[in-house]
Design a protein that fits this description.
Strand content: 15-25%
Largest sheet: 9 strands, mixed
CATH architecture: 3-Layer(aba) Sandwich
CATH superfamily: Survival protein SurE-like phosphatase/nucleotidase
Strand order of the largest sheet: 3-4-2-1-5-6-7-13-8
Number of domains: 1
Order of helices and strands: EHEEEHEHEHEEEEEEHEH
């Protein structure tokens, strides 16, 4: 039964990743920490759910479980099976690499937080803005701080935050900025080459993205050594678009 603060920790880098280990360790003072994460890396799986094969769970002890599925699978299995009730928070990360701007649409890290929010659980996705971070110490400390603030202030709301942390020492971080998602500038992102057998192949993700440098964006905050905290919403309705299109003549076949 639920008798204390319970936090579900997950990620898309896998149960053995340094980021998730650092995140879970930094949260111990807040309550019971249950880690349920993919057995293998699931980066860029977005909100995929496994429907074509059974999922298996491996117990590692101390409330740690590996799942042969996606980050979204992990949240579903954790809440409906492993834990058996809704935890107080779902925390996803700390991702190895940034999740800025439109990248949240591809991110398995962010998708796990979104799944928590869909289930009515306040959730945060944490990422460190480096593909090869030297330390997760500052990111772990900041993640625990923000998790505590969410627990204290969320009330009856279901909140969804995307947080990116600059890959610097704690004393170099200038503060926390509430931001919006940046807008990406796409470059060549597909590499075409020929394998040793002479067959052509393509590799997606070859180009480094550029960004519009708006002052209030997550990208601008992180590149200025601020932590970016972007509140997000599940409502994808274009309210103005609904109003506008209702005025169009959409009669079809006289109906």
């Amino acid at each position: 039964m639920k008798n204390e603060i319970t936090i579900l920790v997950t990620n898309d880098d896998g149960i053995r990743a340094e980021g998730i280990t650092s995140l879970a360790a930094g949260l111990r003072h807040l309550g019971r920490i249950v880690t349920v994460a993919p057995e293998n890396e699931q980066s860029a799986t977005s909100h995929a759910i496994t429907l074509d094969r059974p999922l298996r769970i491996k117990e590692y002890g101390n409330d740690r479980y590996g799942v042969t599925g996606t980050p979204t699978d992990c949240v579903l299995l954790a809440v409906q099976g492993i834990i058996g009730f809704k935890p107080d928070l779902v925390l996803s990360g700390i991702n190895h690499g940034p999740n800025l701007g439109e990248d949240v649409l591809y991110s398995g890290t962010v998708a796990a937080a979104i799944e928590g929010c869909i289930m009515g659980i306040s959730s945060i996705a944490f990422s460190i803005a480096s593909w090869d971070p030297h330390s997760f110490s500052a990111a772990s400390s900041i993640s625990a701080f923000l998790a505590g603030r969410m627990l204290e202030n969320k009330g009856n709301e279901t909140l969804l935050w995307n947080v990116n942390i600059p890959p610097v020492q704690e004393e170099e971080i200038r503060g926390i900025k509430v931001t919006r998602l940046a807008s990406r500038i796409y470059s060549d992102s597909i590499i075409r080459d020929v394998d040793p057998r002479g067959k052509e192949y393509y590799w997606i993700g070859g180009g480094e993205p550029g960004w519009n440098r708006d002052d209030d964006s997550d990208f601008s905050a992180v590149t200025s050594n601020f932590v970016s905290l972007t509140p997000m919403s599940l409502d994808m309705n274009d309210i103005e678009g609904i109003k506008r299109i209702k005025s169009w003549n959409l009669l079809w076949n006289g109906k």
